[in-house]
């Protein structure tokens, strides 16, 4: 059997000879200590292979050890085998068939960060915060994140059984979900009267460009614009640079995000004054428990700069930066947390989330409002809306989505108040 201690000693020597002479005295102790730790791992590895009663695959055992180290750090650091890495790259660059969820490992359990809008998981009722207990009857604790994600994917049109545990529910819930192509539209938009609605589902490579094009079209078609609803609900994040570019579009200047690394000064990403800017109208920004990562960064930036009023529920609380670090062995990699994000005012989002300025617990219309709005009142409201905008999607959202409605009402109220103020009229 190959002696792993010899390999580790060789690696430690390579590290030492590469260091500056002035640093050797202090670094040598650290290197020796690290070598001792690795010797412990190697000793356990050899004892398991030599004495464990059942046959073992050394490669599987090594992968489990690496996964164990990374999972002890945080929910977002993980080991990617060659197959897992390929799956990861496929999700970024190509289409695949699945149910449409973004998830993480938390305390050994696989938790849904957000169901992606208009895809099967959301349509059947899976919610942010749900814990996936089993897939096709197999417990996810035994499967791990890689095998769980593989089980959720499959041929388009096939059905997968997903069992979830929901907070506040004593019983498990089974869903039978039909897989479909994960073709995600990162941006949807419409107008409600003189209010622009922009929903970003994910921060993809070109979403900032698409958003600016959408706003250009809206401004071309509208004589006036009273406000913007920026909907980041159930947005799991995506590319940081895309979120920063959108932040730059809405902010005249100032810091968008602070990134703190282990041994480096904070990296401040600022809005360029020369960049194309959005019209100076009020913004209502919608968030919920499924708003995470880059979406939280944008929310925190607009909130700190008082550029937007944040409406909804507290966001997920995932504000760490991961780097994909390739390993020498068989095209595997590790995804490692290397930095943390902070809002322009220095607030930490990780584990806490963004707190809304206006708490609106549910997107469902409360029963008391439903009761108040008689059929005749609803018909008058819809008729009034049709005079301003023929968009049936806007009508449906206003009638069914309470958070959306509160955003519309808020921006409408601000517009009326501004008009009265400009005319010298009383706002009482």
UniProtKB/TrEMBL annotation:
Which key words tag this protein in UniProt?
A: Hydrolase, Protease, Serine protease, Signal
Q: List, alphabetically, the InterPro entries matched.
A: ClpP/crotonase-like_dom_sf (IPR029045), CtpA/B_N (IPR055210), PDZ (IPR001478), PDZ_6 (IPR041489), PDZ_sf (IPR036034), Peptidase_S41A (IPR004447), Tail-specific_protease (IPR005151)
This protein's GO CC annotations: outer membrane-bounded periplasmic space
Q: Where does the Tail specific protease domain start and stop, copy by copy?
A: 170-361
Show the Gene3D superfamilies listed in the entry: 2-enoyl-CoA Hydratase, Chain A, domain 1, 2.30.42.10, 3.30.750.44
Q: Quote one Gene Ontology molecular function term.
A: endopeptidase activity
Instruction: Provide a GO biological process annotation.
Output: proteolysis
Any signal peptide, and if so, which residues?
1-25
Annotated PDZ domain residues: 97-168
The record, for PANTHER family, names: CARBOXY-TERMINAL PROCESSING PROTEASE CTPA (PTHR32060:SF30), TAIL-SPECIFIC PROTEASE (PTHR32060)
Q: Which family does it belong to?
A: Belongs to the peptidase S41A family.
Q: What is this protein called?
A: S41 family peptidase
Organism, by scientific name, is Candidatus Sneabacter namystus
């Amino acid at each position: 059997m190959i002696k792993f201690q010899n390999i580790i000693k060789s690696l430690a020597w390579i590290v030492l000879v590469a260091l500056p002479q002035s640093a050797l005295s202090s670094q040598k102790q650290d290197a020796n200590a690290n070598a001792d730790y690795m010797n412990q791992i190697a000793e356990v590895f050899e004892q398991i292979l030599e004495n464990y009663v059942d046959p073992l695959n050394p490669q599987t055992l090594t992968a489990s050890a690496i996964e164990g180290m990374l999972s002890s750090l945080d929910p977002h650091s993980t080991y990617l085998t060659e197959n897992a890495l390929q799956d990861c790259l496929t999700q970024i660059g190509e289409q695949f068939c699945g149910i449409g969820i973004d998830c993480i490992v938390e305390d050994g359990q696989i938790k849904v960060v957000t169901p992606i809008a208009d895809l099967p998981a959301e349509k059947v009722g899976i919610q942010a915060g749900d814990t996936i207990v089993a897939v096709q009857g197999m417990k996810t604790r035994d499967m791990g994140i890689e095998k769980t994600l593989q089980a959720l994917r499959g041929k388009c049109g096939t059905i997968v059984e997903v069992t979830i545990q929901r907070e506040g529910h004593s019983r498990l819930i089974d869903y039978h979900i039909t897989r479909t192509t994960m073709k995600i539209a990162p941006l949807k938009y419409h107008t409600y009267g003189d209010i622009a609605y922009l929903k970003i589902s994910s921060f993809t490579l070109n979403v900032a460009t698409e958003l600016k094009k959408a706003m250009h079209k809206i401004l071309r078609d509208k004589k006036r614009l009273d406000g913007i609803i920026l909907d980041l609900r159930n947005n799991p994040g995506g590319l940081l640079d895309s979120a920063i570019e959108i932040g730059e579009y809405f902010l005249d200047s100032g810091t968008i995000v602070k990134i703190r690394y282990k041994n480096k000064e904070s990296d401040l990403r600022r809005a360029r004054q020369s960049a194309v800017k959005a019209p100076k109208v009020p913004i209502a920004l919608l968030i919920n428990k499924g708003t995470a990562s880059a979406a939280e960064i944008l929310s925190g930036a607009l909130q700190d700069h008082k550029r937007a009023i944040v409406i909804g529920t507290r966001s997920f609380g995932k504000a760490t930066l991961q780097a994909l670090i390739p390993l020498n062995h068989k095209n595997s990699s590790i995804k490692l947390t290397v930095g943390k994000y902070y809002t322009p005012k220095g607030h930490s989002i990780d584990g806490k989330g963004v707190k809304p300025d206006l708490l609106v617990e549910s997107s469902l219309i409360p029963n008391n409002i439903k009761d108040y709005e008689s059929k005749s009142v609803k018909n008058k409201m819809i008729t009034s809306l049709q005079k301003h905008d023929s968009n049936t999607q806007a009508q449906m959202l206003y009638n069914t989505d309470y958070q959306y409605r509160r955003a519309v009402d808020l921006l409408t109220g601000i517009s009326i108040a501004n008009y009265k103020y400009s005319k010298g009229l009383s706002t009482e």
